[in-house]
Amino acid sequence: MAKFNRSRVTGALSAVRSRSTPTGSTHEGAPGYERDAKSELFLLAVSNMVGEQTFYEGADERDDRFRTLVGRVALDDPDWTARLIGWLRGEAGMRSAAVVAAAEAVRARLVERRSGGNRRMIDAALQRADEPGELLAYWLGRYGRALPQPVKRGVADAARRLYGERSLIKHDTGNVRFGDVIELTHPRPRTPKQGDLFRFAIDRRHGRDRDIPASLSTLRARAELVALPVRERRALLDRPDAERVLADAGMTWESLAGWIQGPLTAAFWERIIPSMGYFALLRNLRNFDKAGVSDEVAAQVAERLADPEQVVRSKVLPMRFLAAYRAAASLRWAWALERALNASLVHVPALPGRTLVLVDRSGSMSMRLSARSELTSADAAAVFGAALAQRAEDADLVQFGTDYAKVPFRRRESVLKVVERFRDMGGTNTARAVRANYRRHDRVVIVTDEQAWWGQDGEEPTRHVPPHVPVYTWNLGGYQYGHGPSGTGTRHVFGGLSDAAFSMIPLIEAGRNADWPF
Q1: CA-based nearest residue to 336, from 312, 371, 289, 300
Q2: Domain spans of the chain?
Q3: Which fold has domain 354-509?
Q4: Measuring CA to CA, which residue among 130, 151, 150 is closest to residue 140?
Q5: pLDDT tens, position by position, 419-465
């Protein structure tokens, strides 16, 4: 074996950068490394559910920090901010964070009389038909009824792009309805048919009786179904043309459930399943079992769930498959969910050599990702840590908190099964876990919220790894201070709830800079 002519990781630049020495402290008192504004904003944005309390920050405190950072960066670099907003809503799937970021970026720029690009920021955040109303509701609630022109025009651009018959059926809800958006922003219709839709949405918002225009065939078909007596509705499901009739009327499973006004039987689900979207299927596996959906139909659902192309197109985050696995009553979904999870982790690289993967299982990781979710940051960390270890050539997988423990696994074993072996472990003694488990590995990956504990072992955790060995911290918390330096050499921080961050590791180890993912 060559003694001198060996490749070494000399280090490359990465996007998330901090000071090289501590200037503050983590929430547990360990030395804290302050990041530049873009880095802090990025890590907060990809973990911020907006209006949600985390272990160390109240919802108001966290949201205030987010708004302040957005405003500051939008003034310094509007192009970077616009790209962040578009990526945040699209690839990262962070709907609320993107809406708030767009509104606050434009607000900060207008206060300072900055023009150019503001309209584009608003439009970039809006990719689903309920989001123009969502952004206006946020703006009106926070800044009053005066709508600046860039906000009006950006929302109008999105309304023209997103508003159609089916989106009206599905998303015309909330305090700010389609008709409100149209009246407040005056979008110019793209076609005569969309003009008919805009006028109908306004009339519907104001409760004015009006015949549905002939051009709006889907809405007319839906009105016919709604007019059908309740006692006759279930019989429609037994008709041979039921699937076509329901599709022509734009009936989603949610609207059909309300329309039936009765128990959701196997016949109900089997008629609507072919028209259901990917995420809707994933959410309803337990309901399919409860209703007694046939094995034949279940097999069709499983095939769709496991299809890698549909997984990628759906942009469902990996943790959703864990949630579905836990919720499903039947094991007939397990293999499909495992395959779907693997497809959602397509960016996790097969790292060569020896890798130490440390997964934070401390109390601060036990908070739910949102009030509506049963999943926690600890769940996300376990999924990503297990997947990385599974794909690596040779990996040690360790969970840590106050103490640490190895997590056994086999190559090609189900990630969902490996995740079941993780447990809660108390505090965040990251330094002890690194020092006790590092054994001449080629790299170290720490999946954590970075709120390291200050105590007997509370020094900077990455100092226990030789300077020439890369340490990658995957941040799932988005707090202000990190547990170590990042951005240059062999110390790097990534963030987010998807697998995309892992793709930067091979770039850095090849000596190439790993820039922002947008």
Answers
A1: 300
A2: 47-91+94-205, 354-509
A3: Rossmann fold (3.40.50)
A4: 151
A5: 999 999 988 999 999 999 999 999 999 999 999 887 555 578 888 89
